[in-house]
Every structure is written in structure tokens, then in C-alpha cells.
Amino acid sequence: MMKRILITGGAEAIQSKMKFKKKILCIGAGYVGGPSMAMIAYKCPDYRVTVVDVNPDRIDAWNSAQLPVYEPGLDKIVKKTRGKNLFFTKDIENQIKENDIIFVSVNTPIKTYGAGADMAADLQYWEKTARQILKHSRSSKIVIEKSTLPVKTALAMGKILASAKGKIKFEILSNPEFMAEGTAISDLENPDRVLIGSYETKSGLKARAELIEIYARWIPPEKIITSNIWSSELSKLVANAFLAQRVSSINSISALCEKTDADISEVARAVGMDNRIGDKFLNAGIGFGGSCFKKDMLNLVYLCSYYGLQEVAAYWKSVVNINEYQQERFIANILDRMFGTLAGKKICILGFAFKANTSDTRESPAIYISQKLLAEQAQVIISDPKALKNAAMDLSGIKGNVKYIEDPYRAAAGCHALVILTDWDLYQKLDFQKIYSAMVKPAFLFDGRNIIDHKKCFAIGFNVYPIGKPALSHFKN
Ligand code: UDX
Ligand code: UDX
Q: Which residues fall within 8 angstroms of residue 317, CB to CB, at 6 or more apart?
């Protein structure tokens, strides 16, 4: 059991006695709710920000020395604000009563049952939260959608909340969060834009102005943009769809590069220097992971087919298809290069998180790739600086021989192959000569992120297989 130092206790009692200019609540203390509220508390010391969650362990973790999410810079701002104007508590009922501005940041996973299974968003947590707000409210409130939601969710929310009795009125705003994990703090501190969608009624515009006031404390006015509520909901889905599409586009070309003698890094560089295209999100790899891209893409696909736009749905679905193809291609290449059998061979996976600088492994390509390697009866040794606990949970129940070793040198010792799956900086700085010396020969290196010096590793003696570049092999044909 991990030891946790609780710092709450009297803090909740103190907070209700202090005078704060605004009182803000967030329901959902996850990767989005926690960091985004910490930033508001940090930038607005005269506002009281409270975060609640149905999961008591999450709240305990936010109140402990070991936060539930790893995010560079997050510890620092939580330490500066927690117990002063940032509070994490389990008392959802009273907090709904006390606060007039409520952000909702609960999860919206893909439905696993019924109509729209494997495609549509499961809105049951959202609906439960709306009913909770309705039940415990004693005054009018602004309810802000922070989760990424299917278009028209606000309409359903509005219908539930409209059944409030007496003079209580709820105004719904959409304020999607665009931060990415691993860079959440800098994204929140200096976002490209903040988007606020509202109804274009008098009360809608008033609520919108109230939210603008919060962000205007640290974000220049030209970066705070407004729209109608549906545009705002749709923009978040589309932004993620465009980013995911870029990753699938470059990955599809990486397959072509491997057939010709082109090099994907050279192609990406030349293409990205066109400033109409830009150079971001052009790194070929093993495909995108994370809690958002696949879910949001599938939501978009579902939305399009719901409205009868089958061609549009098929277009966006192909982005997900290429992502799966890229992972299958990667596995097939490992199997093929290692003489068609992995049975009994030791494979070291470097990196399990879905990207660098996070402990998050949701939808990480590493899950699928590890499962496939285990199914081929390989012995899998997984190394990651932050994500081993999540990796062990993801693979629990999967049959096969798997070990978790944080130190990459120890993990690689005695292995037949190294497989790089996450773009952690530390992998670029490894002493590959030392690693090579302790491996079984011939030693294989599959760089699923194109992050290491391939020529150098080839010179050391590795057979190197990057993505979208010619293989560097010591074998004669
Ligand atoms: C998730 C989605 O991934 C993202 O698309 C969406 O925009 C917001 O929700 P994230 O913060 O990463 O983002 O999710 P997660 O870390 O799972 O946090 C959600 C939290 O809400 C959990 O801690 C969960 O316990 C809590 N929750 C869920 C409630 O407090 N009440 C509920 O009814 C359901
Ligand atoms: C994404 C969006 O970027 C963010 O705006 C939104 O709020 C949530 O979803 P996130 O999933 O945290 O953020 O990470 P992101 O940096 O977008 O990476 C997603 C996946 O794409 C990762 O697996 C990453 O490794 C992969 N990726 C990204 C590539 O394979 N190549 C690239 O060039 C960029």
C-alpha cells in the first residue's frame, strides 16, 4: 500500500469562512479536471476552486504527496494552491449547493452496449451528474461542459436541468479543454485559444461573460474566442480529428517509404516546411494512443452516420483504420525480421505510456503490441520511467510471460530485441553499446518512434528497423 499524507482535515472548514470573489466547482478530478482547476486556482488566488469526484481514492490521492496523474509542473502549482484556494473533497452534495459556477469534467467513454456500441459516447455519467446538480441545487447556476462531448449534449443537459422548480435557472456553456497530456501545464498557462460556446440569449451571453472574466485573468483577450454552443462542441471533436488525421496521413506514407527508398523524416521535413501545412504532428510512429483521439474519431463517425452522411463517416473512419493498420504492420515486421518466430525469445519494450511525459497508458499502442508479442509466446520485459503501474493493470489477466523492470539496462540484458514504443527523451541518451553488449546476438532494434540514432546503433552491431526508413541490417539479404 502506498503511504499517503492527507492534508485536508480542517481545510474544508476554513475555506467556507473565507471571503472569495468567485466560487467555482469542478465535478470530475481526472486528467482534465485536476490540472485545469489547479491552473484557475493558481492564476486567480481570490477565487475558491473546489474539485469533487465520485471516486474517493482519487480525492485522497489529490490530497496526498503523490498526485494521481503525472504531469510535469503540476506538483508545483498544486503545492502552491492546495488548502489555500484549491480544495479536493468528497462532499459533492454540499459543494453543488455552495457553488454557482460548476465545471463538469467527468469521463465520456465509448459505449460498450446497445445502440451505437463501440462508436457513440456513453453519456450515462454526464446524465447522472446533471441529475445530481438538479437534485442538490438551491440557487441558479452556470454549468460548464469541460469534457469532450457529442454535438447537442447541451440540449439533453438543458432538458434535464429545465425541470428545476421555482426560480432556479441553469445556464449551460461549452468550454472544451484543448490541453494535451505531458504538456498540460504549459498548454493551460499559454493556450492557443480558449473557446467558450453559449446560447445566444441574454442570459447565455451573461453567463459567457462570467466565464470570460475568469480566463481573462491570464489569457490575452484575442485568444478567448466565443461561438454558439453547437460550434463549440463540434470544434473540439474536429480539432482532435484533424490532429489524428495528420498522424494517420504520415503513418500511411511511412508504409510507402518502406517499399520505396524514401525516408519518412526527410519527406515530413520537406512537406512540413510548407507553411500552409506546418511541421507539427508529422512524426511517423506506431500510431496514436491516448484517451481522446480514437474515442472522438469514433464519435464523429457515429454522428455523421446518424445524420445519414455515410461518405463522411467512412472518410473519418479510415483515420482509425490506418492507425490499427500501422500497429499490425509493426508487429508483422518484428515477426518477419526475427525469422518468423518469437516463441521463447526475450523482447524488451522501452516505453509503455501512450506518449512521453505522462504515466497515462489509455489506448496506448503498447497494450496491443505487448498482447500480440505475448500471443506469439515471446517473453516480454517492459520498461518505462512512469507508466509501469498502469502497464501492469492493462496487462493483468493476459496470459504469458511478462516482467516489469524500470531500469532500461537491466530490462534489456539477455534480450533478443529492443522495441521502442514511447518517445521518452531518456531513450535517446541511453548507452547503446552497453545495452548491446548484454544482449543475445544477433541483436534486433525496432524503433517505433524514430527517436534514436539508427546509424550509430547499426555501427555498434544492432540490426535496426525504423519506421518509414530503410532497414539497417547486417544480414546478407
Ligand atoms: C475524460 C475524457 O477522456 C475526456 O475526453 C473528457 O473531455 C473528460 O473526461 P479525463 O479527465 O482524462 O478526461 O478522464 P478521467 O481521468 O477518467 O476523469 C474523469 C473523472 O470523473 C474520474 O475521476 C471519475 O471518477 C469522475 N466521475 C465520473 C465523477 O466524478 N462522476 C461521475 O459520475 C463519473
Ligand atoms: C490530444 C490533443 O492534442 C489535445 O488537444 C486534446 O485536448 C486531447 O487529445 P493527447 O491525447 O494528450 O492530446 O496527446 P497528443 O500530443 O495529441 O498525442 C496523441 C497521440 O498521437 C500520442 O499517442 C502521440 O504519440 C501520437 N502522435 C502525436 C504521433 O504519433 N505523431 C505525432 O506527430 C504527434
A: 297, 301
Tell me if 264 sits within 8 A of 253, measured CB to CB.
yes
Rounded Cα–Cα distance for residues 82 and 38 (Å): 8
Atom of ligand 1 nearest to the CA of 33: 11
Nearest CA to ligand 1 atom 3: 291
Q: How far is the CA of 241 from the centre of ligand 2 (A)?
A: 11
| Burial environment of residue 152 by CB neighbours within 10 A (0 to 12, 13 to 18, 19 or more) | middle
Q: How far apart are CA 96 and CA 429, in angstroms?
A: 49
Q: Which residue, chain included where needed, has cell 501545412?
A: 277
How far apart are the C-alpha atoms of 298 and 97, rounded to whole Å? 36
Strand boundaries in 177-244, DSSP class E: 194-198, 224-228
- Mutate which of 149, 181, 250 for ligand 2? The one with the most ligand atoms within 8 Å of its CB, which is 181
In order, the DSSP letters of 261-306 are S--HHHHHHHHHTSTTT-STT---SS---SSSHHHHHHHHHHHHHH
Where residue 431 falls (left for φ over 0; alpha for ψ -120 to 50; beta otherwise) is beta
Query: pTM of the predicted model, to two decimals?
Result: 0.94
| Ligand 1 atom with least separation from CA of 105 | 8
Domains of the chain with bracketed CATH: 11-219 (3.40.50.720), 230-477 (3.40.50.720)
Q: What pLDDT tens digit does each residue of the chain (477 aa) get?
A: 344 444 444 555 555 556 899 999 999 999 999 999 999 999 999 999 999 999 999 999 999 999 999 999 999 999 999 999 999 999 999 999 999 999 999 998 888 999 888 888 888 999 999 999 999 999 999 999 998 888 888 888 888 998 888 889 999 999 999 999 999 999 999 999 999 999 999 999 999 999 999 999 999 999 999 999 999 999 999 999 999 999 999 999 999 999 998 999 999 999 999 999 999 999 999 999 999 999 999 999 999 999 999 999 999 999 999 999 999 999 999 999 999 999 999 999 999 999 999 999 999 999 999 999 999 999 999 999 999 999 999 999 999 999 999 999 999 999 999 999 999 999 999 999 999 999 999 999 999 999 999 999 999 999 999 999 999 999 986
The Å distance, Cα 108 to ligand 1 centre, comes to: 7
* Ramachandran area for residue 142 (φ above 0: left; ψ -120 to 50: alpha; else beta): beta
On the 0-12 / 13-18 / 19+ scale of CB atoms within 10 A, 274 is: exposed
Neighbours of 129 (CB within 10 A): 24
CA of 10 to the centre of ligand 2 (A): 40
